């Protein structure tokens, strides 16, 4: 009897902690052994709400094999009626002592990186978000062909929290 109570307790805790009332969209794509500079990770988002503001995030999972203190990303958002917004973004990935930032108790760290705040998807239809890395070694123009240590690239949309 005690064993079944323990199992129920574990599943109950998992259910409570897995509920995420702010999430509107949350998806990940796995990156093979390394992330090629020409590989674009793509997410399709259907939106019919043209009023409510949303917060947008790029999520990255990385391991100790990621050897840089930052990351440069090119994020492109294509709107249903042809408009495109393209941003080059830089995020810190490690503390000055080399300790990887992010959450997680295992060797994989998860980084939730701000992309845009208070975005209203003012066109009904399918939006496409494309993400690729734009890493370079200091002093070089040519990009890093294969970026090691990034295991997953994600995109998340949340309800904007009232302030």
Kindly summarize this structure in a few lines.
This protein is mainly β and 163 residues long. It is 10% helix and 49% strand. The protein has one helix spanning 2-18; strands at residues 23-30, 34-36, 41-47, 53-62, 70-78, 84-92, 109-120, 125-133, 146-148, 150-159.
Structural class call reads mainly beta
CATH level-two architecture: Sandwich
CATH topology name = Jelly Rolls
- Average pLDDT number: 89
* Share of residues in strands: over 45%
Give the total of beta strands: 10
Largest sheet: 4 strands, antiparallel
CATH hierarchy, class = Mainly Beta
User: Unreliable segments (pLDDT under 50, ≥5 consecutive)?
Assistant: none
Element pattern in H and E: HEEEEEEEEEE
State the helicity in percent bands.
10-25%
Rounded to the nearest angstrom, the radius of gyration is 18 Å
Number of domains: 1
Number of helices: 1
Shape summary: globular
Question: How does this model look, in words?
Answer:
- The chain is mainly beta and 163 residues long.
- It has one domain: Jelly Rolls (Sandwich), CATH 2.60.120.
- The chain contains 1 helix and 10 strands, in the order αββββββββββ.
- It has a 4-stranded antiparallel sheet with strand order 1-10-4-7, with no helix packed on it. It has a 4-stranded antiparallel sheet with strand order 3-8-5-6, with no helix packed on it.
- It starts with a helix and ends with a strand.
- The mean pLDDT is 89.
């Amino acid at each position: 009897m005690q064993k079944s109570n323990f199992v129920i307790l574990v599943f109950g805790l998992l259910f409570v902690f897995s509920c995420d009332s702010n999430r509107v969209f949350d998806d990940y794509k796995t990156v093979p052994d390394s992330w090629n500079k020409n590989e674009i990770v793509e997410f399709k988002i259907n939106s019919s709400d043209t009023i409510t503001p949303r917060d947008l995030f790029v999520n990255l999972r990385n391991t100790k094999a990621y050897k840089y203190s930052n990351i440069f990303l090119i994020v492109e958002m294509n709107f249903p009626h042809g408009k495109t917004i393209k941003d080059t973004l830089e995020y810190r990935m490690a503390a000055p002592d080399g300790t990887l930032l992010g959450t997680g108790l295992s060797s994989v760290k998860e980084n939730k990186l701000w992309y845009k705040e208070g975005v209203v998807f003012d066109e009904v239809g399918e939006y496409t978000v494309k993400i690729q890395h734009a890493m370079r070694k200091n002093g070089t123009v040519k990009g890093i062909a294969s970026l090691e240590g990034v295991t997953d690239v994600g995109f998340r949309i949340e309800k904007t929290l009232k302030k």
